[in-house]
Specification:
46% of the residues lie in helices and 14% in strands. It is built from 9 helices and 5 strands. It starts with a helix and ends with a strand.
Amino acid sequence: MKTYLLAHPPSYPSLRYAGKDLAGFLETEPFAAIFARRCAYCADLARLEWALIHAFDAEDAPVLAREALAGVAPEAWASLRFKASPALVVLSLGWPVEAVRKRFDRESDEETWQAPPALEPERTHVRVWRREETVSYRAIPALEAELLRTLLRGEDFGVLCERVAEEVGEGQAAAQAARFLEAWVSAGLLCALA
């Protein structure tokens, strides 16, 4: 880690930002290959850790109330846009590192690891968010990750529904899109109608 800090010295008074470039360093620096040999997924784990820090420190925002959606006229749904919580991060990773983080969260301070837990490479999508003071993370399907990124880009609900229809067919698209939206509202991922 000393080499990383020499290559990327903190540029802010707070150490909070010191790990900002760690994932990229672990992937690209020849010296960092020693970490990859011991823990092949270390860069993805650093990405998840950075997302958790971001979510914890993100600006507070209100949670979108279901009542705000109840008042939307049926013909207005296609053009509806949402503002996501500033704490929301969507990651696409090559390793299921959320499993390692969950194991860490479950273990006590007295337990130590002799070696990093074994993982097999697997394309994984993880959403990280904070609601009130609690930071959460969970693996999500590729379609949900794509839809959340589409929402974060400011696309309207009609575009999200079209993408869902491409995946599950026209007949199931509305119900599937509604399930995603309900899950996002329940989790506090959305803070307003844009």
